[in-house]
Amino acid sequence: MAKAKTNTEDYLRMYAQMVRIRTFEDNANQLYLSAKMPGLTHMYSGEEAVAVGICEALTDSDRITSTHRGHGHCVAKGAEFGEMFCELLGKEEGYCRGKGGSMHIADQSHGNLGANAIVGGSMGIATGSALRAKLQGSDDVTVCFFGDGATAQGLWYEVMNMAALWKLPVIYACENNGYSEYTKTEEIAAGSITARAEAFGIEAFTVDGQDVLAVNELTQKLVTRARKGEGPFFMELMTYRYHGHHVGDINREYYRSKDEEKDWKENRDPIVRFRSWLVAEGIATEAEIEAMNAEIETDATEAVAYAEAAHYPDVSEVDMHVYAD
Amino acid sequence: MREITLSQAVNEAIAEEMRRDDTVFLMGEDVAEAGTPFKVLSGLVEEFGTERVIDTPISEPGFVGLAVGAAMTGARPIVDLMFGDFIYLVMDQLCNQAAKQHYMSGGKLTVPMVLRTNMGATRRSAAQHSQSLQALVAHIPGLKVAMPSSAYEAKGLLKTAIRDNNPVVIFEDKLMYQDKAPVPEEEYLIPFGEAHVKREGSDITLIATSSMVQVAEKAAEMLAAEGINAEVIDPRTIVPLDEATLLESVKKTSRAIVIDEGHQSYGVTAEIASRLNEKAFYHLDAPVLRMGAMDVPVPFSPVLEDITVPTPEGVVENARKLCAGEMIHAA
Amino acid sequence: MPHDVTMPQLGMAQDAGKIVSWLKAPGEAVAKGDLLFEVETDKATMEVEAQASGFLTGVVAEAGEDVPVGAVIARISESAEEESAAPEPAAEDAPPADDLPEGHSVTMPQLGMAQDSGVLVNWLKAPGEAVAAGDVLFEVETDKSTMEVEAGRDGYLAATLAEAGEEVPVGEPVAILSAEAPANPVARSVARTAAAAPSSPPARPEANAAQRPETRPEPARPAPQQASGGRILASPKARRLALEQGLDLARLVEAGHPQPFHVRDLDRLRAMPATSPVAEGAAATARMLTAEIDADGFAAFADWAAEAHGLADADALLAGLAGASLSPPCTIAVERFGQARHFAVPAGRVLSAVSETEDAPDLILRDLRGTAIRSLAMGAEASPVLTLMTGGAGLSVTLECSPSQLDAQSAITFLTDFAGRVEQPLRHLL
Q1: pTM (2 d.p.)
Q2: What's the ipTM?
Q3: Residue C306 domain-assigned (yes or no)
Q4: Which of A249, B218, C19, C356 stands the most exposed, by the fewest C-beta atoms within 10 Å?
Q5: What domains can be seen in chain B, in order of their start residue?
Q6: Catalytic annotation present for B60
């Protein structure tokens, strides 16, 4: 475990945010399993420390771009359950008025530039956001989340080149969960992923993505440097997704074993690990943590009920927002 | 009124908008000191510096992606795509990212960017540097598409595009960069979705875009000598399309030919002709004809290339037949 | 609050799952995360975890049952006893009972090309009666004819589903034939049958009832006004204006105007004399006069006129001669090989003043000299028709018109005068 910080509130908030993500995903999964949610969704469960560790190092005016597995980033960057569940169910009060759904969910008001359903599709957007900050003379940093699968996209190499040339304040955060959809990453990625960033002269780091404090500490350091024009940076966060590629990817033993899943869940769960650390450090008692969990569970249950009862958008909205005024 | 080239008109439009609004910046391959291979942007880097006139690597998806991100965060980038043919390279950034952000976010994100590129054959540039691909992007909801037909339109439409809050693709005819036209000294904008009736007539409507406006005007002159009075209309933007003006004209003349330099099949001409058929059917005294580029890759040899695009003579021949009530295609 | 246990959606395109076994018994305590039951989908068998803690109650789906995704199959309740009203399986939508006998449907046959219903004229068999395949079952009237429809199979007429005089859409059942004698033969009207429609017809319509070959209607003969393959070719605008102004494009076809018609052709149509029953009746008893001329003097005259006076258009000259004989000023159409040119012939005899026009003609001059046709009788058309044909040593000229167009004396005078002018064109100039 990384070194303790002094601010108790920050730790408790990080824990709460991770639990909020897990709870959100459990409820989203239930909505899918009970056929109440239209379409599919990609669960972030297991990767909570990545989104929380990073986003807790950012301010509201710092920006992120998210992925198809984006609920975690969305929660971590400050979104509320109610609008998120509404979006998942295609309701009018959703963050995107029901037009985006799970794969495009984002609370734009907290600097989330959107979840992107094209693998690697937001790498240009994140780098452009960093270019904007530089042109504007602001010190905002942009974090580009993507998975290991997206490292196979050519776009990444084009934008890393420009980001490095122009010293843009962007941090490329590769959530390496070991699987590129239904294929082991080692089968699709040659050589070293960090070496690819290093080839552009970009400093690259590998970090345990199940250790929220380690992720947070590294991100804080890199964000501070990026604000001073020392960017861009690359982080490879070693993590694991508990579910399949999406909620419908149930029978997955052909690409990974149940034993492997069990091992990650039982021995490397980011929430369990951080919880014991909090208790051991005397930052929170078991009872306080249970109370926190229960409160989050209640929030989620209420938000789901609210979203289920919420209105769908009026059909007249179908051709609204195609063009901006 | 003074006359300037289309190239100068584009340059003026960008300079004026960059002076007016410091969120406007320019990026693309060889846009700074080189001023692009067509020298359209020469001089801009001297005035605005390399901070706002940015030379990029040859990474079309990359720099278009950057423009989308910069636009989503408050800038108004103008991207120079050296040849219209390269639009295939940037399709994901343009059609999946730029075009859909506003809609997918329920109206919360906007992408006020301009993609300037070009079109037009007969420059002996062969199949990968001669295409007119406006139909590809006009097909995508969320993108606007402007097609200037002279220096005057090039300036007015580009200034409007830069101020628009949506991604706009402007296709300039690369053969017209040195063509001069009267352009006022004083500032003006050309609103999107307003067609321009270039010539009034009563017998047949020639609807032409960009490079084909000249072709239609020439054809109209030739037809006038035969006593056929052709009306020539330039839609100026194909998205949004000024349907009302086109329909009004066709209801008056009862006949129409739609001319565009893109490939004829599944193209701009097909879309406009369909709308006329749907909405002015009972006013038509002849089938609406499409005239586009032949459905072949653009060939290199001049003798081949020249026959792939519509010509004034071809337009005249078709117009004459329509006006005489001859059947162009068997009943 | 009890927690519903539902059949989960497991695959991407799955809509139901089979319960393989329950891993907990009703009333047993369960903890969130415990394995509750096994489900088999098309892909595999999976274990499903409890999503809440409590007691398993209200199990309504047993092992082996197929359950739709999302359906509630049990509850997890706060006590083992809580037998909160077990969710009822959705009642199947039982079709409303239909009292129609079983058997083969006989449907309304499609008899014409564009027919969509037929009127049942009368039944030739009574409900309950035995029928043989070749027996006539009922008569149908369409717009074209009345015909008999055979049973097509042996059996009993178990039900009649339309009454005499009722209209039945093509393909809809009209009768039901059963193999066994029906216990309760049914006779219904279409209205009553329609009311019972939500329940599927009791029998699948098989082949339409056979039709007697001798009563098969003849292929529709093209109506006389639909000259070119049955459909008049005209532009949408010409059609719309004709409709708005009550103009009949078929009359242009009758008058021999080349298709497709455009707006300008409507002017000719407007200029045609109004048709009336009298005129149409008269057309049947049209006038037909033929003049024989020994020599065709016109060719030589045309050459001379072209050389001496620069009048190169022989058609204009011909129109001039015809117009002078009719009653100038007037419009003459000169038709050759289906192409027509219209000429305005002014008063006076000045042939150089004849000019092309688009006005509807007062007379059609049909030049068949270049053809093998030597005589004809076409009947009256919208305007008087003068036909030039090669005949004997020289020319044959036939005038056809209706009595309303030219009275007997005018017709004779006109043809005589014109024949004279064509024989010796120079006379025209005197």
Answers
A1: 0.70
A2: 0.91
A3: yes
A4: C356
A5: 3-182 (3.40.50.970), 196-324 (3.40.50.920)
A6: yes
